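Sequence in, structure out. Go.
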Amino acid sequence: MKQFPATPSVADAPDDLLSGHLWLLELIEGRPLRFQLQGSGLLRFGDPETVYDDPEGVPLPLRRAVRHIRESLDRAALRAAVNDVAQVVFFGVATTRESVPYELDSMPPFLGTDVWAGDDEAFRPPDAADGIFERLGLEPVNPFEREAHARDFTLDSYESPGSAWYDGPAAGVVLRNKAGHRGILRNTGIETVDEETTDEITGDVAAADLAERYATADTIESVAATVKQGDEPATVDTVTERLLETNWPAATRAGHRQ
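Output:
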């Protein structure tokens, strides 16, 4: 499966990035996720390091997004659009509760960022990728500006706009142009996540303790209602797993601080 495109900081990006017309996309703090529809109709998923042939084997923080993609992707539309579905790889972000307090109840579990077309050996331009995700039933990452003149963009004085997903500033912006150049401009006022503290829960922090700490009564009721809508019994184990899918990163950091 095609790897994620390299996205350096704007300072390290090619000078040609700041030329022509720019798309300014919200930088979403979450977990990178890629997927591919196989000829058999099954979906393969991957993170930056691993490809999972069995969707049930993906790590817990990605499962909410995986379930959403499996339920929402219009497979018929994809098959009708390309000769070989396996030549297309989709990239995006699984939305989780990292450092930025997104309102996850109103945020899609997955936001699409890129589409790789294997037949052309190229990533689709940002406007094309945006339309592809929408036609296939998935939401693309939100743009702050489309087709902005690069000459009007001042790197030193640019301030990150407010996020579309909570009442606060965005984690940053991703700059892209149609020539394929890209770069990240982070909002230094947002605390970043320590990747080393988000992988595993220590033995001292049980799932029940984390659920109690990060799940309010309203949250539990909301999750249970969502489970029931999917015709699945809202058992304690199922609701707890869904809560951990969303709150795993924040919960693990708390566990490491104990």
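Check: Strands lie at 21-26, 31-37, 43-46, 51-52, 88-94, 110-117, 122-123, 143-149, 172-177, 182-186. The longest helix spans residues 236-257.
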